[in-house]
Automatic annotation (TrEMBL):
Residues included from the entire protein: 203 to 521 of 521
Class of enzymatic activity (EC top level): ligase
Subunit structure of this chain's protein: Homodimer.
Record-level GO cellular component terms: cytosol
Signal sequence, start to end: none
MF-aspect GO terms: ATP binding; GMP synthase activity
Entry's EC annotation: 6.3.5.2
Protein name (record): GMP synthase [glutamine-hydrolyzing]
Pathway in which the depicted protein is active: Purine metabolism; GMP biosynthesis; GMP from XMP (L-Gln route): step 1/1
Length: 319
């Protein structure tokens, strides 16, 4: 139980005395934790911090632009924006197995990050957005079956390969404290209260083989769903919500013609810990509006379904 402005000052002091005049690198993903680390380190050490933002081609609509706007333009943080989407797509060609896709995306990320950090030879520290639950989780990971089902930790081993010292300023904080800190540091509310997004991104929300065309359709469908959730007040009432691309074609009608297009599934869940989850009982009128908009606005999708599976036995993601 601490006072936030005091905590910010104390954290800044700690970071300054630990880092001194060294340079620090941070992988900025746009998620809550890395965003708060970026804002905090920027406040503490200014231009000694360089963020690397890797666009893997599997991000949500306008995500890269938003991150660059918030951090580089508004806050004046040094951010290197790497568009590696072509490279990620190339390595994912022909790959359908979910765990294989996770491995490839994780490996590519490390490779791109390594390449970028080699351009900053003076960096001594790698900052990470590790929070207290991550610390506990990795300590208990060996005995935790539920976490072994999917390989979630895609960037493990990065500090070792880079020969950098690890800086983890959020190590003692719970998620709600990280959010409070983000607000105290002036980050936008919508960024701080964002739903979690998996590291492999749309890579595990496009079932089977990942293709650029599929990612484009999914990005637009997903953005419509999220926009309508926010507009109706349901975004805050759900823990995670997103669209999933099904590489299956079904028949529809449009005007005088017949269509033969792809299917999108909507998923929205409520959960405390993401280990178990209930599907959200979204109002039919909201689902209807989202479905109409997606089918009318995203050419190439002619059918929308809603996922009513709980976890367990289903998982939150479809892969
Ligand atoms: P599941 O699908 O296992 O998801 O019920 C539980 C939570 O974990 C997230 N998730 C991931 N996060 N890398 C991540 O960083 C991954 O590979 C990954 N797979 C699932 C999922 O979004 C949900 O919040």
């Amino acid at each position: 139980d601490w006072n936030m402005p005091d905590y910010v000052e104390e954290a800044i002091g700690r970071i300054r005395s630990e880092v001194g005049s060294d340079e620090v690198i941070l992988g900025l993903s746009g998620g809550v934790d890395s965003s708060v680390v970026a804002a905090l380190l920027h406040r503490a050490i200014g231009t000694q911090l360089t963020c690397v933002f890797v666009d893997n081609g599997l991000l949500r609509l306008n995500e890269a632009e938003q991150v660059m706007k918030t951090f580089a333009d508004n806050l004046g943080v040094k951010v290197i924006h790497v568009d590696a989407s072509g490279e990620f797509m190339k390595h994912l060609t022909g790959v359908i197995d979910p765990e294989q896709k996770r491995k490839i995306i994780g490996r590519e990320f490390v490779e791109v990050f390594q390449r970028e950090s080699a351009k900053l030879p003076n960096a001594k520290w790698l900052a990470q957005g590790t929070i207290y639950p991550d610390v506990i989780e990795s300590a208990g990971a060996k005995n935790n079956k539920a976490h072994a089902i999917k390989s979630h930790h895609n960037v493990g081993g990065l500090p070792e390969t880079l020969h950098l010292k690890l800086l983890e300023p959020l190590r003692e904080l719970f998620k709600d404290e990280v959010r409070e800190l983000g607000i105290a540091l002036g980050l936008p509310h919508d960024m701080v209260y964002r739903h979690p997004f998996p590291g492999p991104g749309l890579g595990v929300r496009i079932l089977g083989e990942v293709k650029f065309e599929y990612a484009e359709l999914l990005r637009r469908a997903d953005a419509i769903f999220i926009e309508e959730l926010r507009a109706s007040g349901w975004y805050e009432k759900t823990s995670q919500a997103f669209a999933v691309f099904l590489p299956v074609k079904s028949v529809g009608v449009m005007g005088d013609g017949r269509t033969y297009d792809y299917v999108v599934a909507l998923r929205a869940v409520q959960t405390q810990d993401f280990m178990t989850a209930h599907w959200a009982e979204l109002p039919y009128t909201l689902l209807g509006k989202v479905s109409n908009r997606i089918i009318n606005e995203v050419r190439g999708i002619n059918r929308v379904v809603y996922d009513i599976s709980g976890k367990p036995p289903a998982t939150i993601e479809w892969e």
